[in-house]
Design brief:
The protein is built from six helices and 14 strands. The chain is an alpha+beta fold and 348 residues long.
């Protein structure tokens, strides 16, 4: 818990922070998150004020292979990690996804999408520490996230991680944090439209932050519908990154020719790198990231509009601020070149 307090303290002391936490807040352990049965991988702490009012969460790694802080969010509304039922345990094996396992039926679902995990042969989840006894669908999760059945190395002495945050650097697109971003459920829901939703959120922010007249008649549903069409989105398979970039370009140039050249062809995150993505934010360039979600679900697009860079002892962790299309609050996810695939940028 000291790691979480230290992390949040370094953030609160930064003058550039907009989303301030209440005075005298407390961290309440609300979820133990597992890697396999009985083996913790992370802990979720809720941020509450002195009246026990919820203000967000922070997820701390329980093992050395995970960053001291996996992710965090600041919102008065509870998010996807709180959607697990009382009889469901939460599991995390890396990346940006969390799974809920129903202790009674063995059903495994993705907490982000609320979709049941499917595999070639679905068996019941076996509550065993022996990974060879796990069902086909659980093996599918391990394979998708390249998780090997190794003996976990737990963080026994957290003191080197405490009081280690030397500095914090924050940048975001001007006035972007409080833009009225949308989720997939605000439109059709339960289809592969994360690309058009991320592009719609980009347009919402362009209007909110830059005053750009890119919302057609002002009806967000019409913006979404047009971007769904121009990006060639398939309800089942989604849209490819080249179609996403060309579709955004087609949408913008149909509104005003001044936007010609504003949208670049998609790039690979591995080519751009974290410094390139941070530079884009500094230069007020909008970005849509394609997250790699493994072979279970394909990929997912999110709109990112800022970052927080924490220098911890001799290590730097960069968390990108995203509107993930699933949750109403802003989510801060750790940069990982192996879990981020492509990037589409727009400069207004």
């Amino acid at each position: 818990m000291a790691i979480a307090y230290d992390f949040l303290l370094s953030r609160e002391e930064n003058e550039d922070i907009i989303e301030k936490l209440p005075n005298d807040y407390n961290l309440i352990l609300s979820k133990t998150i597992y890697e396999t049965e009985g083996v913790p991988s992370a802990y979720k702490f809720d941020i509450e004020d002195e009246k026990d009012t919820y203000h967000g969460y922070i997820v701390i790694g329980a093992q050395e292979e995970y960053a001291p802080v996996i992710e965090y969010s600041f919102s008065d509304e509870k998010g996807f990690l709180d959607s697990a039922e009382a009889n469901e345990e939460i599991y995390y094996v890396g990346g940006y996804d969390y799974f809920a396992v129903n202790e009674g039926t063995g059903t495994v679902k993705n907490l982000n999408t609320q979709e049941e995990v499917q595999s070639v042969s679905i068996d019941t989840y076996n509550n065993s520490t022996d990974t060879s006894d796990y069902s086909d669908m659980w093996k599918a999760i391990y394979k998708a996230y390249e998780k090997k059945a190794v003996v976990p190395v737990f963080i026994k002495d957290p003191s080197p991680m405490e009081d280690g945050y030397k500095s914090l650097n924050i940048r975001n697109i001007v006035d972007s944090t409080f833009a009225p971003y949308k989720t997939m459920n605000d439109f059709v829901g339960n289809i592969g439209d994360c690309g058009p939703v991320a592009a719609t959120n980009l347009m919402i922010m362009a209007k909110h932050s830059f005053g750009e007249d890119v919302l057609l008649d002002g009806t967000i549903k019409n913006v979404y519908d047009e971007l769904f069409k121009t990006t060639g989105c398939d309800p089942k398979n989604g849209t490819y990154p080249n179609f996403l970039s060309s579709g955004i370009n087609q949408y913008l140039t149909s509104i005003n020719k001044k936007y010609t050249g504003a949208t670049r062809e998609f790039q690979f995150v591995s080519d751009v790198g974290v410094n390139g993505m941070m530079s884009n934010v500094k230069n007020q360039i909008c970005q849509i990231i394609q997250l790699d979600k493994g072979s279970l679900y394909g990929a997912h697009y999110v709109y990112t509009f800022g970052y927080e860079e924490y220098v911890h002892t001799n290590k730097t962790n960069v968390y990108f601020m995203i509107a993930d299309g699933w949750n109403s609050g802003v989510r801060y996810i750790l940069y990982d070149k192996d879990k981020m695939l492509t990037l589409v940028t727009v400069k207004f």
